[in-house]
Design goal:
Layout lengths: L11 H10 L13 E3 L3 E3 L2 E4 L3 E3 L4 E6 L4 E4 L3 E3 L6 E7 L4 E3 L5 E4 L4 E7 L3 E9 L6 E7 L4 E9 L4 E7 L3 E10 L14 E6 L4 E9 L2 E5 L3 E9 L8 E5 L4 E4 L2 E4 L2 E5 L3 E4 L1 E4 L10 E2 L5 E4 L4 E4 L3 E3 L6 E6 L3 E3 L3 E4 L3 E6 L2 E4 L3 E3 L7 E2 L3 E4 L5 E12 L3 E3 L10 E11 L9 E4 L3 E4 L20 E5 L3 E4 L6 E6 L2 E6 L1 E5 L4 E4 L2 E2 L2 E3 L4 E4 L6 E4 L3 E3 L13 E6 L8 E4 L3 E3 L12 E7 L10 E8 L3 E3 L3 E3 L5 E7 L3 E8 L1 E2 L5 E2 L18 H11 L5 H11 L3 H11 L2 H12 L2 H10 L9 E15 L8 E16 L3 E16 L4 E18 L2 E20 L7 E20 L1 E3 L2 E16 L2 E2 ...
Length: 1028
């Protein structure tokens, strides 16, 4: 054993250090032997071991201290002495006590396994408490339950072995001096692997110590508390170091400095509070890939808080450190947040690894920062944004100045839209945009303090955009005089470069600007603007640096009325594409027109100035590019300016494309690309839109579409759904089908008398599109009631009425209709032996509501609605003969029906795409030829059942091509579109059962299906008849 008694001449401090280091002052052989427990015992009285004791030397041994038991010790306590030993001390109850030696250690898990449990209000005292002493050992200390406590001077976990400390249920552990996890001290971690863990769980559970230095794992959850004067978390020798504080009420309160050199998560409402905080990580920064997934402090979740009253410092000498704040977490830095060498501050998704460039985890919602000043030191890695949605940051950012410059740190946007509004006048660090949008609604690097004289230094700020968008809406950099070879030149200290998919935009001012290898310059932001280059502009030209020019680069412009447009204003020279440089490579360039002014007519052409360069222009843009199938642009270049002439692509009567106006007739612009009849009709109306107001706005928005998008827009704008809805109303046979089904009686039924009946029905139909109009789906359900009277054994007369609901969807046009209908009618039937004839007339009143969603994803996206009325008058008849064949009856029949539909006009709600819908009339004739077969199962009884089936051929003629005439409310010519045609021929099949539960009642259950001409449907009907 390595325990030694310390002579009285040695101070308590020395004794503690000697014990902690495993040293001795007197040979163990001269000390009296400790008591050895070799079997389980229960201690209920006071017991004193002056020389200490051992439990679990080679076998498992459990000592239970209960009741008023008190185990006192004057010498070392060893639990789990040898590799196979397992010693357990369990102190249970409010009167139970354990007292460790005053100047010796209580070792839980010496070379084997040791367990020390204090529970149910028990108390334990020790000078030095060690768990996991030697290599391969395991020590488990568990303090649980309200009132349970452990007090000691020192607590060492994982001295050379593995250890677990658990505090839960409101228990408390109070350590006067140090708590050291995973080692005897942070500077003496062993080289072999070991695992230690501290868990503090539950409200009022607490670990309190002067100095807490954890090299293993830490978990504070469910309201657990850790209080320390100073502390730190470090990478464990096992490589598994990770600390987690989680849950509302969970807290680590540190009075002075706290060091975080490994992963620490504060999440789900937990709090970490300290005076000062240092986040340095443990991984060295070099050119090899470094995994930082767990090497950072992460604050995540609403209510989670890291608070440092005297500041936060991130990074260290050649070590990467990161503070990530996400998903509602908050950091309060007490006024000063330093990002030092190797340091990252991240809002949103955490950094994943670091090599030449960092890798990033999936973007998540950003967290919050207080208003502390953010200071970026030389060699700091920067402030990064990798979040969802939009955030605004109004903190002051300042770069610490080195011997020459104030250009420390970087701003990095990976994902999300980030708007900077604070004071950045002393921020001269790099700006890197890899994705999302970074907006400067403030000046940056404009403070020239310290650069008042002409010098050789080059205080430049560099801005790079290789993905996403950088928006500069303020000044970037200040004007500086530089001496070179006794020549003094003046330049602006901020330079910008856009490449790849990167876009440089805004209304600000920057120095020399390079757009190359796919990069885009887009003046303005959310509208027309002016981008100022206080220096030279290089547009996809080499020879200035090592720029690649392989991919075409663009100047994007938006256009407004009266000649106003996006403008690039260059104080120096502009070098553009081919011919733009005297040496080096030169690449393709173009001007891309994105939007037109909604208030300007382009039918006579417009000219815009898009670039001005005081120092002249060398080279020029290759072409004008637009997604539009209707707009063409021509570049006109002078010595110091580039102009853009915009005209429309039109078509004359012979089909030739031309630019200009054709007399007083509307120019054929949209009609050039229309394919279908409906598209051509709609495009012709759009060509006639008034060239002012909302009509012109819609016209110009459509001008910016390519051919495919334009054709989809014509279909959207056509109002085809109104024709499709009328086709549904023309096909409706609700009352006719109910009456004819009711009148299908057995010849053997008693003829004279009166009957009341009720029928419920529903059907679903679909009509496929015809290449011009879109497919539609119709659904209906309703309830019909009637009363009739039979007389003379041949005649029946009656009346019926009911209510019906119908719905239609035209998904290909983003439209749908709902219809409430009231039906009424009269009918009659005549039978003479096997011959019969029946018919009637009906009237239907329809209340229709049609909704259209047009322009989804387009600038003119709108939701439109109209309400209108329609009514229909129908007549119908059916004749046939019943041919008995034993138990079967064969019935050939012929049917004829006519429907006349009148639809009122309507006006859609507000919107540039809203339509007037003109009233109209339609009619359709329907003939049906078929045969039914009935099989009587009653065996001649008047009660029983009859099974029926049938096949028929149905023909429609008349207004099968249902059309609808419209005009745009904002002002256009009228145009007519049509729906998919009604099917000319249909095959019909039906099957049903007629039940006669009594002499006076009958129940009919029928289903019917039909198909043909692109239409198919299924209907069901149930009716009940009662004879009086």
């Amino acid at each position: 054993m390595n325990h030694r008694h310390h002579p009285r001449s040695i101070t308590p401090l020395c004794a503690a250090v000697l014990v902690a280091l495993g040293l001795t002052t007197t040979p163990h052989a001269v000390r009296a032997a400790a008591h050895e427990y070799t079997a389980d015992e229960t201690i209920t009285e006071e017991r004193n071991h002056q020389q200490g004791f051992k439990a679990g030397i080679d076998t498992p041994v459990v000592l239970d201290i209960t009741g008023s038991g008190h185990l006192k010790n004057g010498g070392p306590v060893d639990l789990g002495v040898n590799q196979d030993g397992h010693g357990t001390v369990r102190v249970t109850g409010p009167d139970a006590r354990f007292s460790g030696p005053g100047s010796y250690s209580t070792d839980v898990g010496v070379s084997g396994k040791g367990t020390f449990i204090v529970q149910d209000g028990a108390k334990a005292f020790a000078n030095t408490l060690r768990a996991g002493v030697h290599k391969g050992s395991f020590g488990n200390i568990h303090v649980t339950g309200a009132g349970s406590s452990v007090k000691a001077r020192y607590l060492y976990l994982g001295h050379d072995g593995n250890a677990l400390l658990r505090i839960d249920g409101g228990a408390k552990v109070d350590i006067e001096a140090d708590v050291l996890g995973d080692g005897r001290s942070p500077d003496s971690f062993g080289t072999h692997r070991r695992n230690t863990r501290i868990e503090i769980s539950g409200k009022d559970s607490q670990l309190k110590a002067n100095n807490v230095r954890i090299g293993g794992q830490l978990l504070i959850e469910d309201g657990g508390q850790l209080h320390s004067n100073k502390g730190g978390v470090y990478t464990a020798s096992s490589g598994a170091g990770a600390a987690v504080i989680t849950g509302a009420g969970s807290r680590w309160l540190n009075e002075t400095k706290l060091e975080v050199h490994t992963g620490l998560d504060v999440r789900d409402g937990a709090t970490l509070e300290t005076e000062s905080l240092e986040i340095a990580g443990s991984r060295a920064i070099n050119n090899t890939a470094t995994d930082l997934t767990r090497e950072q402090l992460r604050v995540t979740g609403p209510g989670s808080l890291v608070k440092a009253s005297k500041g936060i410092f991130i990074g260290g000498s050649n070590r990467a450190g990161a503070l990530t704040v996400s998903e509602g977490g908050r950091v309060e830095a007490g006024g000063k947040l330093d990002i030092g060498p190797g340091g990252y501050l991240v809002l949103g998704g955490a950094i994943g690894g670091l090599s030449i460039e960092p890798t990033w985890q999936t973007p998540v919602a950003a967290g919050e920062l207080d208003d502390s000043v953010i200071i970026l030191h030389s060699s700091s890695l920067g402030l990064a944004f990798n979040h969802n949605g939009d955030i605004t940051l109004d903190n002051t950012l300042r770069s610490e100045r080195d011997a020459l410059h104030r250009n420390g740190g970087a701003l990095i946007n990976v994902a999300g839209t980030t708007t900077m509004t604070g004071d950045l006048s002393q921020f001269g660090g790099r700006v890197n945009v890899h994705g999302g949008t970074l907006v400067f609604d403030t000046d940056t690097y404009t403070d020239a303090t310290g650069y008042d004289h002409v010098g050789d230094a080059k205080p430049r700020q560099y801005m790079f955009v290789d993905g996403g968008t950088l928006v500069l809406n303020g000044e970037a950099g200040f004007r500086y005089q530089e001496r070179k070879d006794d020549v003094v030149s003046t330049f602006r200290t901020a330079w910008a470069t856009a490449s790849g998919t990167g876009v440089l935009a805004g209304n600000g001012t920057v120095g020399d600007t390079r757009i190359h290898d796919g990069g885009t310059l887009s003046p303005g932001h959310h509208g027309v603007g002016t981008f100022n280059v206080d220096g030279d502009l290089y547009f996809n030209v080499g020879g200035v640096g090592f720029e690649h020019v392989d991919t075409k680069s663009y100047l994007d412009v938006d256009l407004l009325a009266d000649g106003m447009s996006d403008l690039v204003r260059v104080s120096g020279a502009a070098y553009i594409g081919h011919g733009g440089a005297t040496e080096g490579e030169q690449g393709d360039t173009g001007v891309r027109v994105n939007t037109l002014d909604p208030a300007t007519s382009y039918q006579e052409g417009q000219r815009y100035t898009i670039l001005e360069a005081e120092g002249g222009i060398t080279g020029g843009f290759d072409d004008v590019v637009s997604n539009s199938a209707f707009v063409t642009g021509t570049l006109v270049q002078t010595d110091k300016a580039v102009h853009l002439d915009v005209t429309l692509i039109t078509q004359d009567e012979s089909g030739e494309q031309e630019a200009g106006e054709k007399g007083n007739q509307p120019l054929t612009v949209f009609g050039r690309v229309a394919h279908t009849a409906n598209q051509r009709a709609t495009a012709t109306a759009l060509d006639s839109l008034q060239q002012s107001g909302d009509a012109l706005a819609l016209y110009n928005q459509l001008l910016m579409q390519d051919e495919d998008s334009a054709r989809r827009s014509f279909d959207d704008l056509s109002g085809e759904a109104y024709a499709s809805t009328r086709a549904m109303l023309l096909r409706d046979d609700f009352l006719r089908a109910g009456v004819l089904s009711h009148l299908r009686t057995d010849p053997a039924e008693v003829a004279n008398g009166s009957r009341a009946w009720v029928t419920g029905s529903g059907d679903a139909r679909s009509q496929r599109g015809d290449g011009n109009a879109a497919a539609r789906r119709d659904h209906s359900e309703g309830l019909l009631m009637g009363y009739d009277f039979s007389f003379g054994e041949s005649w029946t007369v009656g009346a019926a009425g009911g209510r019906q609901s119908m719905r239609q969807q035209v998904r290909g046009r983003g439209a749908g209709s709902e219809v409430d209908a009231l039906h009424s009618g009269v009918y009659a039937a005549f039978r003479r032996d096997a011959l019969w004839l029946r018919g009637g007339v009906s009237y239907a009143d329809f209340e229709v509501e049609t909704d259209r969603a047009v322009g989804a994803g387009q600038p003119w996206e709108q939701s439109l609605r109209s309400r209108y009325k329609a009514h229909a008058v129908s007549s119908f008849s059916e004749a046939g003969v019943d041919l008995p064949l034993n138990a079967m009856t064969l019935t050939p029949y012929l049917g004829l029906a006519h429907t006349a539909l009148s639809t009122g006009g309507s006006v859609e709600g507000e919107g540039s795409a809203a339509l007037y819908v003109l009233p109209t009339r339609d009619q359709v004739w329907t003939t049906t030829t078929g045969v039914r077969v009935a099989w009587e199962t009653s065996g001649g009884e008047r009660t029983g059942a009859r099974i029926e089936g049938g096949l028929a051929w149905q023909n429609h003629y008349g207004d099968r091509l249902v059309d609808s005439t419209h005009a745009f409310v904002v002002g256009s010519d009228a145009f007519t579109v049509r729906s998919a045609p009604l099917a000319r021929n249909l095959a019909v099949a039906e099957f049903g059962v007629v039940l006669r539960p009594s002499d006076s009642s009958r129940v009919n259950l029928f289903v019917q299906g039909h198909r043909g001409g692109g239409e198919r449907g299924l209907a069901a009907q149930a009716s009940w008849n009662l004879r009086f």
